[in-house]
Specification:
The structure holds two protein chains of two kinds. Helices cover 40% and strands 0% of the residues of chain A. Chain A is mainly alpha-helical. The radius of gyration of chain A is 10 Å and the shape is rod-shaped. A three-stranded antiparallel β-sheet of chain B has the order 1-2-3, covered by helices on one side. The relative contact order of chain B is 0.16. Classes of the chains: A mainly alpha, B mainly alpha.
């Protein structure tokens, strides 16, 4: 988890198509 | 079960369309807008590390959309966190390469890069002609299959949700999801293609995808040895997290 903290954060974030 | 398969297909197609950087219409409009001779010369005269950095930024941007695609696939977020990360780490670049065929014009062998289309020569100063030409060959061969947007969506999901990745903690769960995706892909390909071997041809491209990703890692390692500072300081953190040796 520590090694992939950005990927982990991206997976946790809720994103809408607009934000993309 | 046709109902389940249809639902899965619709969910993946919707996820794909919502998370593509460019719509099909946008790509069609851009298809013949190519970088001018002077612009190509400008790319060719860039220092190697500058163009590497630009490409790393573009790839990272594309990967963020792939992460979003994965998150929207029903069942993906129900996998354990270890497997979500593992599938994305090992498959995100493969999905970017599959998606790249949407932004590739096989009639003049050009790819969309920084707003306009350009040929292989645009990437000359990267110093990895083998990788660049292999990527272009792959895009051309995938384009020759004339996949629909729905097929690209399902194929992308099939590439991502793969039991071939080592160290999966719940391979059975991944396998169940993968099987459903393949059923949906098969169903859609049978509907769209006269060629009975179309699905087999598509699946036969998967080893090339993984070979391209290996080649990318090797080229990155070689580049990093010569320009460690560029990688450490200027490359996007996500790119380093995913590909750093």
């Amino acid at each position: 988890k520590e090694k992939h903290k950005i990927l982990h954060r991206l997976l946790q974030n809720s994103t809408s198509p607009v934000e993309l | 079960n046709c109902g389940i398969m249809h639902r899965i297909a619709q969910n993946i197609i919707k996820s794909h369309l919502e998370t593509c950087q460019y719509t099909t219409e946008e790509l069609q409009q851009l298809a013949w807008q190519t970088h001018s001779y002077e612009e190509v010369k400008m790319y060719q005269s860039k220092p190697r590390d500058v163009l590497w950095q630009q490409c790393a930024i573009q790839i990272t941007h594309a990967i963020q959309y792939v992460v979003e695609f994965a998150k929207r696939i029903s069942g993906f977020m129900e996998l354990c966190q270890n497997d979500q990360i593992l599938l994305l780490k090992s498959g995100c670049l493969e999905v970017v390469l599959v998606r790249m065929c949407r932004a590739f014009n096989p009639l003049n062998n050009t790819v969309l890069f920084e707003g306009k289309y350009g040929g292989m020569q645009m990437f000359k100063s990267l110093g990895c002609d083998d990788l660049v030409s292999a990527v272009f060959d792959f895009a051309k061969s995938l384009c020759s299959l004339q996949l629909t947007e729905e097929e690209i969506a399902l194929f992308s999901a099939a590439v991502l949700i793969s039991t071939d990745r080592p160290w999966l903690m719940e391979p059975r769960k991944v396998q169940k999801l993968q099987e459903k995706i393949y059923f949906a892909l098969q169903h859609i390909m049978q509907k769209n293609h006269m060629d009975e071997d179309a699905l087999a041809k598509l699946i036969s491209r998967i080893p090339t995808l993984s070979a391209l990703c290996t080649l990318h890692t090797e080229e990155l390692q070689a580049f990093q040895q010569l320009h460690p500072e560029t990688v450490n300081v200027l490359f996007p953190p996500l790119y380093k997290e995913l590909f750093n040796p």
